[in-house]
Structures are given as structure tokens and as C-alpha cells.
Amino acid sequence: RASEDEVSAVFEMPLAQALQLGRYHPLDIYRRGNSHRVWLSWYEHYFVWGMTANILRELALQIGVKP
């Protein structure tokens, strides 16, 4: 069960779409003098970002999906 404090919505995205590397866009955030890259994506009207987007993008890279 998803924590309402951490998740705004639970939805399904087709795996073929989730694994499209071109759907993920980097955003570099600077905090306390350090740079942190956050990945962003959208599916229908849902905004996917942070750890969720990073996990899906890394999965695509690990299984060798071409951009």
C-alpha cells in the first residue's frame, strides 16, 4: 500500500512506454553547493519524477533499451 505522504497517485503505465529512454528529462538541482540530477517524465496526466523515474530509467539502461 502506497503512503499518502509520499505518493500522490497510483497508476499503470505500459512497460514499453516506461522503458523509452527519451521520455526522461534531467533536471539538475543545486543545494548547499552540490549538484543533484533528478529525472522527470510524464505519462498521460501523471508527473513521474525522482526515485520512481530514476528506477524506471535505470531499468531501461540495464536491459539495454536503445534511446
UniProtKB/TrEMBL annotation:
<protein>
    <submittedName>
        <fullName>Putative nudix hydrolase YeaB</fullName>
    </submittedName>
</protein>
<keyword id="KW-0378">Hydrolase</keyword>
<dbReference type="InterPro" id="IPR015797">
    <property type="entry name" value="NUDIX_hydrolase-like_dom_sf"/>
</dbReference>
<dbReference type="GO" id="GO:0016787">
    <property type="term" value="F:hydrolase activity"/>
</dbReference>
